[in-house]
Design a protein that fits this description.
Order of helices and strands: EEEEEEHEE
Largest sheet: 6 strands, antiparallel
Number of helices: 1
Strand order of the largest sheet: 3-8-7-4-5-6
Distance between the termini: 29 Å
Strand content: over 45%
Oligomer: single chain
Length: 85
């Protein structure tokens, strides 16, 4: 993000993101995988699916309950975020 301060002066900020290569079997652009006491639930572009994404599930190893969000950046590159529940 960039913000003009005055005249030609700008402030720029950035944050790091997690990126993985994921040969997703779907044409979707957003994936959500949730694991909790109800079991595993997966959505691609907001629609439930039976497709599994073991690469994403491995990112959450060590948590009892978690959610992984993935958003396609380009091709097989995906931005990912893992959160414990």
């Amino acid at each position: 993000m960039a913000v003009r301060r005055a005249g030609t002066a700008w402030s720029v900020g950035a944050r790091s993101i997690g990126v993985v290569e994921l040969a997703a079997p779907s044409a979707g652009d957003e994936i959500e995988v949730v694991w909790d006491e109800s079991g595993r639930r997966v959505e691609v572009d907001g629609e439930p699916t039976l497709v599994s994404f073991p690469e994403l599930e491995r990112l959450a190893a060590g948590f009892d309950a978690w959610v992984v969000w993935a958003r396609r950046l380009r091709g097989t590159a995906w931005e990912v975020e893992v959160r414990p529940l």
